[in-house]
Write a structure and sequence with these properties.
The chain is 42% helix and 14% strand.
Length: 264
Amino acid sequence: MALEIDYSGKRVVVTGSGAGIGRSIAVMFAQAGADVVIFDKREDKVQETVEQINASGGGSAFPVIGDAREEGQIEKMFDEAVELLGGIDVGINNIGMLGPQGTASLIDMDESKWRDVLEQNLLVTALSIKAEAKHMKEIDGGVIINVSSGETTRPSPFLAGYGAAKAGINHLTETAAVELGPMGIRVIAIAPGTTLTETVADFFDEERISAIKQSNPLKRLNDLEDLGYLAVFLASDFAKNITGQLFLADAGAYLSRERPQSIS
């Protein structure tokens, strides 16, 4: 008998899914049959993702547009997602970025820079978990997956704020797993290594990308699909006994001695 992962009838919300890793994860869940809410502040990108999913068959996609950093918006957006889907079985918390002030040395990280990077990574993830758990406990379970970063596994010069915020997400994942487990809610973190998003392609030239590839055991970067496959597996019943864990998807970069500057 062939094994397959079927999400038909499942309801999935992916935050920050207008593009990049979030879009890839949303597309992958829809291909497996799930109905997916595309949750982002960029209306044009949301519509692109919705149209891509709805044109390709499988599950359906629905837009929820808003800025998660505005007070009260996260809860409002998840309430809207529940109205569209009828509930939430899986929540993928992918909002998080370096932001315009995220790359600086520690000595240059002033209070506004710290607030910026902590808010858009750690705080938004914490409030998303709260909103998801509120709805999942009503159906006696669900799965929450937080997108962390490979930067949490090593020193990150000029990315101290980002690395610290993402490391906070790792700890938050463990704590949430303990608190929410009795409600039937599993909580997991995935930590991408350098991933070939549009941002990475714009930020690094071919020489730098080649150097990053050569520095890890598998001699490659993450393709966007790699994170989608991992999320679909971890949210499935094949992983039903897993919670509170961090899963690195970094081509073995954590094991490497040479660690050139990266973004993940």
